[in-house]
């Protein structure tokens, strides 16, 4: 997809993509879904957050990250002065896996062109992967979120950082040093610092997929 589309063309391409996704039957998840959850927010944002897939409330409402986990995500963002409506939030798969199971590789592969097209149109500078599934899928790794969270990677010319999924934080209430919540607070501060530190037009060199930039 052309990365230098005019804003009118981008708008048109975005609408066409959304229509295509909303009528998609490329995988079996289409049979049990109530809604297709395309993603919401600012499609010109420098920051995109990617979760695993819609849950029950998202499926009901057709909106990504609503319910308790969504509200916590909004709070995490606003704790560093990032407004939810200023970022774009989406999932690896756009339809709810029954019983909130992890989407299968076939389902993620089927949905992948949509995620790729969204990213190609948004052209974010930073992607945050929320939890194991998007982290493993995008970085093509079997390493878990506990090992990878808080580390910066270059992924297709985008800075990528894994963070814990907010629903995991809801199950781990402690705020002690080293707890998932405290680590997430550090991670979102790291995102904010990176966002502030990056000049609008600067992009890391494409290639070096999954390359860790911590060192
Ligand atoms: S999960 Fe993705 S590929 Fe599967 S039916 Fe929904 S939109 Fe299509």
General shape: globular
Total number of β-strand segments? 7
Q: How much helical structure, as a percent, in the residues?
A: 40-55%
**CA-atom Rg in angstroms:** 16 Å
Secondary structure class reads alpha/beta
Compounds present?
iron/sulfur cluster
Contiguous helical run count: 9
What does the model show?
The protein has 215 residues and is of the alpha/beta class. The chain has a single domain (7-212), classed as Uracil-DNA Glycosylase, subunit E. The chain is built from nine helices and seven strands, in the order ααββααβαβααββααβ. The protein has a seven-stranded mixed beta sheet with strand order 1-3-2-4-6-5-7, sandwiched between helices. A hairpin with a 2-residue loop joins β5 (153-155) and β6 (158-163). α1 runs antiparallel to α5 (105-122). The longest helix has 18 residues, at 105-122. Bound molecules: iron/sulfur cluster (SF4). Residues 21, 24-27, 29-30, 36, 93-95, 107, 110-111 line the site of iron/sulfur cluster.
Give a brief description:
The protein has helices at 7-22, 29-32, 56-61, 67-78, 105-122, 132-139, 145-148, 166-170, 180-197; strands at 40-41, 47-51, 88-91, 126-130, 153-155, 158-163, 211-212.
């Amino acid at each position: 997809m052309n990365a230098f589309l005019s804003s009118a063309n981008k708008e048109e391409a975005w609408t066409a993509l959304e229509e295509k996704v909303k009528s998609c039957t490329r995988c079996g998840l289409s049979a049990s879904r109530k809604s297709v959850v395309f993603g919401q927010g600012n499609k010109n944002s420098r920051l995109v957050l990617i979760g695993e897939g819609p849950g029950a409330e998202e499926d009901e409402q057709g909106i990504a990250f609503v319910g308790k986990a969504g509200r916590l995500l909004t709070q995490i963002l606003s704790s560093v002065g990032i407004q939810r409506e200023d970022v774009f939030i989406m999932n690896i798969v756009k339809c709810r896996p029954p019983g909130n199971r992890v989407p299968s590789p076939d389902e993620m592969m089927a949905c992948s062109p949509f995620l790729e097209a969204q990213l190609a149109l948004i052209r974010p500078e930073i992607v945050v992967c929320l939890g194991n599934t998007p982290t493993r899928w995008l970085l093509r790794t079997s390493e878990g979120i506990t090992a990878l969270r808080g580390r910066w990677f270059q992924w297709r010319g985008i800075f990528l950082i894994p963070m814990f999924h907010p629903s995991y934080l809801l199950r781990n209430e402690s705020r002690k040093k080293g707890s998932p919540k405290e680590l997430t607070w550090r991670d979102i501060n790291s995102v904010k610092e990176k966002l502030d530190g990056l000049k609008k037009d600067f992009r890391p060199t494409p290639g070096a997929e999954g390359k860790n930039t911590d060192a």
